[in-house]
Amino acid sequence: MSEPSLLVRRLGRQPYRPVWSAMRAFTDARDADTPDELWMLQHDPVFTLGQAGRMEHVLAPGGIPVIAVERGGQVTYHGPGQIVGYPLLDLRRLGLGIRELVVRIEQAMIDTLAEWNIEGRRREGAPGVYVAGAKIGALGLRVRRGCTFHGLAFNVAMDLQPFHRINPCGYAGLAVTQVSDLGGPGSIEAVEDVLTVQLARQFGLRIVPASPILPQPADAPESLPS
Question: Is 81 helix (H, G, I), strand (E, B) or coil?
């Protein structure tokens, strides 16, 4: 019996809101037979504030927009040079709970770092992946009707200065690092290749390249909530 498929869409650089809208619509429209998907991309500069997020952790946003979303977690930054991965998975079909989902996504990032002999670690009580105490990979997930959306952010070769304008993930003074500063490649494509394979491996799914265009279900909402 062959492994179930994972449709992988490598979307390049995208503004935040259309992708957010598309993954919400995809999740709402999917059924028990819908294949799982993984969207890999970079976002235009944006701060996102999770359900637990408090504006007091946004210190000086300047011209970077702040968008409140329904994922878990606090505030984080997305920008060019950072891989954002949205695993759109049916947890019931995979037989996984939320805690196991988090562990497996973290492990995919840890195994990706190991490709370049970088030692990534978890931190008790603070989801994500850290190198020598500095955060390199963040998580913010949402589960609806047993299916996941939102996902991970993995710093590769970006301007880290905007992280100084927030308390990353709600922690004042939390250090942030990236692959290119730790002896790894500065190529988004090279790191994305490895991370995609590691994510598929963690969930026992077979990679199937899909169109690099956001899917638009027929019943997609016309507008986003404010």
Answer: coil
